[in-house]
Amino acid sequence: MKKKKIGKQTGLSGNRDFAVFWFGETLAMFGGRITLLAIPFVAALTLGATPLQMGMLNAVQILPYLLLTLPAGVWIDRMRKRPLMLTANLVRALLLSFIPAAYALDLLGMGMLYACGFGIGACTLVFDLAYQSYLPALVGRKDLVEGNSKLEISRSAAEIAGPGLAGALIGILAAPFALLVHSAMLLISAASIGRIRRIERKPDPRSSERGMLLSEIREGLALIFRNPYLKAIAGEATTYNFFSQVTGAVLILYITRELGIGAGPLGLIMGAAGAGSILGSLLAGPLAKRFRLGRAIYVSMLLGCGAPMLVLLTHGSGLLSAVILFVSFFFGGLGVVISNIHVVSLRQTVTPDRLLGRMNASYRFVVTGAAPVGSLLGGVLGSTFGLQATLAIGAAGTLLALLWVVFSPIPKLSALPEPAEGEG
After folding, report:
1. Cα angle at 348 between 345 and 351, to 5 degrees?
2. 308 and 254 together in one domain
3. Where's it found, cell-wise (predicted)?
4. What span, in angstroms and rounded, lies between the C-alpha atoms of 355 and 246?
């Protein structure tokens, strides 16, 4: 009797450590969607927050990204990443538990909510920067695209199903107690990280001796602007984010007031972005192999940057406008996710291991720094020139973002370049 040959496992199919990490991070992503909806509900419905207080609550959750991103990148490069991720999840779980506990004891106020929001935002920042720096060591450079694709599938699934899950939990448990579900998910995620067996290499001992914090921050920023790949993708992302915020400032007003689309249909339309994201996560790897990496990045960015132009074709209430919006959101999600998967893998490949934390922090700081200004500009333009004119300006700006990549070496890439020196 002939014995069946067992095929050799390829890619991440046999990587137990990644499977454990992926499971825990998927739970955390779904939990994050609960918190994203529950904290504003706690403020608005439980505490009766004013519009100014709601704005402040949103601001304090973003503030860590502006204040801590660059120094956090230096700090992360000096330490092992896995303990940082584990600690960040444990602290987030603790902070989330404070809110329902304070509510049950009649001690909850906006001040505590501000403090918890800032702390949760800071821990989320540390976790995200650490995991992006840790992933190359966990999966190996050759499997980065597959690893990032799988994580993006989880993120997209959370984007689609998370809001519905959050709404149901808030309805059953009340907003403060719904946060306990996210807290429990973070504890499971922390336990999953603790079960990773792969021994993490010690950071370069010179990283803690290299001098002043500011000089190390400059090193991360210099890498972004010196490397032609990083410079191009940072320029594209910064321009895209800026003009997306111009559009985002007035888009909901335009859809609800000018097109007369209600909250229910709007939820389905916005869900199209998540559906496109899941498809993009599945197609990213095969497209790069079939059509070359540079072409896959360029075409997917064209989809993502061009999708807002479709909104300009809408006019008046009716099914056609709703269909056009659905298609715009779908192709926007599809294009952005395909390009993001390859861009993250490219960033992780061209950056030396000892600079991964600083690169990720510098990149995050550069590409998100202009977003609040874009949102403010969108509001001013909408008040001055009207909603449609503002949408046209925003859509044109996002399309122009593609020029950063067109005039870069990226379209010529057939595959990921050779890893940067310093790889372990």
Report:
1. 145
2. yes
3. Cell membrane
4. 33
Q: Collect all residues with Cβ–Cβ distance below 8 Å to 53 and sequence separation of at least 6.
A: 43, 110
- Helix (H/G/I), strand (E/B), else coil: 380: helix
- Let me know: does 378 contact 247? Beta carbons within 8 Å: yes
Give SS3 for 106: coil
Query: Which of these three, 181, 196, 211, is where a domain ends?
Result: 196
> Is residue 124 domain-shared with residue 243, that is, in the same domain?
no
In the chain, the number of structural domains is 2
Give the tens place of pLDDT for each residue, 100-114: 999 999 999 999 999
- How far is Cα of residue 98 from the mean position of the Cα atoms in its chain? 26
- 169 and 232 inside one domain: no
- Residue in the block written with tokens 């960040």: 88
Q: Which amino acid appears at position 124 of this protein?
A: T
Average pLDDT over every residue of 257-278 = 79
Residue 321 and residue 184 share a domain: no
Q: Are residues 125 and 62 in the same domain?
A: yes
Q: What are the tokens at 196?
A: 């990773």
Same domain? For 254 and 366 the reply is yes
* Token pair listed for 420: 């940067």
- Tell me the C-alpha distance between 325 and 397, whole Å: 19
- Report d(CA 99, CA 111) in Å as an integer: 11
Nearest 10 degrees: CA dihedral of 108, 120, 246, 30? -100
Q: For residue 404, what are the domain limits? A: 221-412
Which pair of structure tokens corresponds to residue 53? Answer: 């207080």
Cα–Cα dist 245/344, whole Å: 22
**Claim to verify: residue 131 and residue 278 sit in the same structural domain:** no
Tokens of 137: 């060591």
Average pLDDT, the chain: 85
